[in-house]
Design goal:
7 helices; alpha+beta; 11-stranded mixed sheet
């Protein structure tokens, strides 16, 4: 399950970027947008030790003037870590690859004044993208790559990509996405508007999205968490099953004149 939870991250990004100019190969996936954010220019590696494969995968991004990231869904060797550091990459805290038996999901309460919705309109899709951008401090273009602006909303119960959110006073204030792949219910883009934080919205949309997946026959949910959301997912019943090592490179900016 650990490898499956980590690999789901790779499957997700391959699906979301295949129409956005990504370069997908058997052992790697790369995307270059030029945006001023590490996840705007990245390589995801399925290979942990083969130097030639990894060198080829990171070649398009390692000399960019923009920030870039290299992520590994099958671990990374010490030799490769050393090579990346030599190229100017810094190892940061890995993402936690987490899994849950959805039947054991801890209960949550609906925050006052909110309802849980599956997105059905272009207006909601625009609001969803805005919250993802603000919640993760992403450039708008990156949020759009993940949003209904790039992947049309489907009402099909078994659609592989499904958009959800918590709505207050007619506006989306928290987001989630369900990506159904390889028999697993993957949760992505769980974000809350900054002014709405600390009201339980993140746990609420996570729980409700998992319940929807359960009604569709999915029994295991997976996600990849930063430290910021880790305790929330643990409180819902998620367990750490693996990790996704990450390296980022932030090019030096010219000194102001």
């Amino acid at each position: 399950m650990g490898r499956d939870a980590a690999m789901h991250f790779d499957y997700f990004w391959r699906e979301m970027t295949k129409s956005q100019g990504s370069m997908a190969h058997e052992h790697s996936l790369s995307l270059i947008t030029g945006e001023d954010h590490p996840m705007g220019n990245f390589s995801i590696l399925r290979e942990s030790q083969d130097t030639q494969i990894i060198e080829t995968a990171i070649r398009p991004i390692k000399d960019l003037a923009a920030p870039s990231a290299v992520l590994f869904v099958a671990g990374v060797s010490a030799a490769i870590e050393q090579r990346l550091v030599g190229l100017g990459y810094a190892k940061i805290d890995p993402m936690h690859a987490m899994a849950i038996d959805i039947a054991a999901l801890a209960p949550t309460q609906r925050p006052d004044g909110c309802d849980f919705v599956r997105l059905s309109s272009a207006v909601e899709g625009t609001q969803w993208a805005e919250i993802v951008a603000r919640g993760f401090s992403l450039p708008q273009r990156l949020a759009r790559i993940l949003s209904p602006k790039a992947h049309p909303i489907s009402a099909e119960p078994q659609a592989s990509i499904q958009y959800y959110g918590a709505r207050r006073n007619g506006r989306v204030v928290a987001t989630s996405m369900l990506y159904l792949s390889n028999g697993l219910a993957g949760l992505y883009c769980i974000a809350t508007a900054p002014e709405e934080r600390r009201r339980g919205l993140g746990a609420y949309v996570t729980s409700e999205t998992l319940k929807t997946a359960y009604t569709l026959g999915y029994r295991v949910g997976v996600l990849q968490s930063s430290e910021a959301g880790h305790s929330v997912y643990r409180s819902l019943g998620f367990q750490d099953v693996d990790s996704v090592p990450m390296f980022i490179r932030m090019p030096k900016r010219p000194a102001p004149i």
